[in-house]
Amino acid sequence: QRLSIPIAKGSCYGFSFDLARGATYSGYNEPLRLRIWGSSSKCSKTQLLFESDGIEHTYWKRYRTKFTAEAPFYYILIEVLHREGHFQSSGNILIDNLSPLQPCPRA
User: Fold this and answer.
1) pLDDT digits over 20-56, tens only?
2) The dihedral formed by the CA atoms of 13, 95, 53 and 23, expressed in degrees to the nearest 10
3) 28-60 in b/e burial notation, b at 16+ Cβ within 10 A?
């Protein structure tokens, strides 16, 4: 997704979102991991902003992340991965209530 306002190098931002796993979803029931990247160009992966463990829980759980941009970026890329040690997995992950990117509060 292209950001409406680019993130400048050295800027601190945070955001939050809810994650869960569907207990039964047409046989795709294994837990997966989620990664969120900041990107300088479409479909590239410039900076890892968040990485979850395998999402085992079937209830909504709030996740928060904060980062300082190592380079300017213009895109957010969401990636789903199989669990560690598994080549293939039939899983699902649910995402909801993604907040806007917010500048970090000044101390």
Assistant:
1) 998 887 778 888 899 999 999 988 999 999 999 989 9
2) 170
3) eebbbbbebbbbbeeeeebbebbebebbeeeee
Residues in Cβ contact with 28 at an 8 Å cutoff, skipping those fewer than 6 apart: 22, 90, 91, 92
How far is 49 from 4, CA to CA, in rounded Å? 18
pLDDT in tens, 53-70: 989 999 999 999 999 999
Query: Of 64, 75, 47, nearest to 105 (Cα)?
Result: 64
Q: pLDDT tens digit string along 77-94?
A: 999 887 665 556 688 899
